[in-house]
């Protein structure tokens, strides 16, 4: 499991900080991106093994970004877990092509187990 790289995209710096600290204690390498329009360049630059993506963000929403990713040959197969406080978030996430969904406020153990489950595949 060690040295797996995870990209986290959320427009809330506090959430980015919490997730980064949590995942680093699990021995993941973490990259964060607060500006969703910059996410695809950041993915191409860092080649993460998995993406954690917030659904509701200004400029480009998570589902818009995810639909774009799923159409790009070089990065379309990256596992994506969508995070959202939205009631219908899981439907939106699966429609956009997410591999998993975690509701906010999220349970840290649940988040880590979903990440590990996707990275084992």
TrEMBL record:
Write down the superkingdom of origin. Bacteria
Location of 4-aspartylphosphate modifications: 54
- Stored PROSITE patterns: RESPONSE_REGULATORY
Return the InterPro entries for the record: Bact_response_regulator, CheY-like_superfamily, Sig_transdc_resp-reg_receiver
* Cross-referenced SUPFAM superfamilies: CheY-like
Q: What is the lineage of its organism?
A: Bacteria, Pseudomonadati, Bacteroidota, Flavobacteriia, Flavobacteriales
Q: Where is the Response regulatory domain?
A: 5-119
Q: What is this protein called?
A: Response regulator
- Which keywords does UniProt give here? Phosphoprotein, Two-component regulatory system
């Amino acid at each position: 499991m060690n040295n797996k790289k995870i990209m986290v995209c959320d427009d809330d710096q506090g959430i980015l900080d919490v997730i980064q600290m949590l995942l680093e204690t699990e021995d993941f390498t973490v990259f964060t991106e607060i500006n969703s329009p910059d996410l695809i360049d950041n993915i191409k630059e860092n080649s993460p093994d998995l993406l954690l993506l917030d659904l509701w963000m200004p400029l480009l929403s998570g589902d818009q970004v995810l639909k774009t990713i799923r159409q790009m040959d070089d990065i379309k197969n990256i596992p994506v877990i969508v995070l959202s406080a939205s009631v219908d978030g899981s439907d939106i996430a699966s429609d956009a092509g997410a591999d998993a969904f975690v509701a906010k406020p999220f349970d840290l153990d649940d988040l880590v187990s979903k990440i590990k489950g996707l990275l084992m595949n």
